[in-house]
Amino acid sequence: MAEGDHDKLGFRGELDRMLRTDPFVPLDLVVTSGDRFRITNPSLLVMGPDVVTVYDAKSDAIDVIRANQVVFVRQRHDEQKAEHE
After folding, report:
1. Which of 3, 11, 36, 37 has its CA 20 to 30 A from that of 68?
2. Could you confirm whether domain 5-84 is CATH 3.40.50.150?
3. Which residue ranges of the chain lie beneath pLDDT 70?
4. Coil, strand, or helix at residue 74?
């Protein structure tokens, strides 16, 4: 991806790009309340027109988050490296 293309993607495009990274890199999704959602598998997050749905396999919980409430997304390259060591 060329320099500056990230700015053109917007939030949805950038998140979609992160979900399609091969190999997948785990993500932290942080919302305005301060809640943090760890995405360890790209199939655990689904984007709708106005919401992001996250499934937590450990607790069997489903969280539906307004997309405009997401304030921060971080790829966890440190976790990816640990899995491959």
Report:
1. 3
2. no
3. 1-9, 79-85
4. strand
